[in-house]
Amino acid sequence: KQQLKHALKINAAHVITHDYLTLSQPLSEGLLLMDRTERKLKMIHSLGELQPLHNYTTEYGNSLVRHAKHKALLAGSIEVDVGTDEVDFDGQLERGALQR
Fold this sequence. Notes:
It contains two helices and six strands, in the order αββββββα. It has helices spanning 2-23, 89-99; strands at residues 31-35, 40-44, 55-57, 63-68, 71-74, 78-81. Helix content is 33%, strand content 27%. By secondary structure, the chain is an alpha+beta fold. A hairpin with a 2-residue loop joins β4 (63-68) and β5. The longest helix is centred in the N-terminal third of the chain and has 22 residues, at 2-23.
């Protein structure tokens, strides 16, 4: 049982590392994510295309949330830099607040 737990931890670390390395590189080929907030698949070519505070899932099942203009959170605890802002992070937050 301990060996199984250990193997699962190693596998979880491996898939988080894979996603981190992918997200840290230019996404010129595009990256397919599940937007759990809008319940649809989304192809992005930059982390700047992530909508503020939307919950996304990577192909390996890790969560991804753009919680700040220039930061996204992978798997609930790993910050990834967001170098661009195609969706106008601040403007989207303001529009969202006005709609509530």
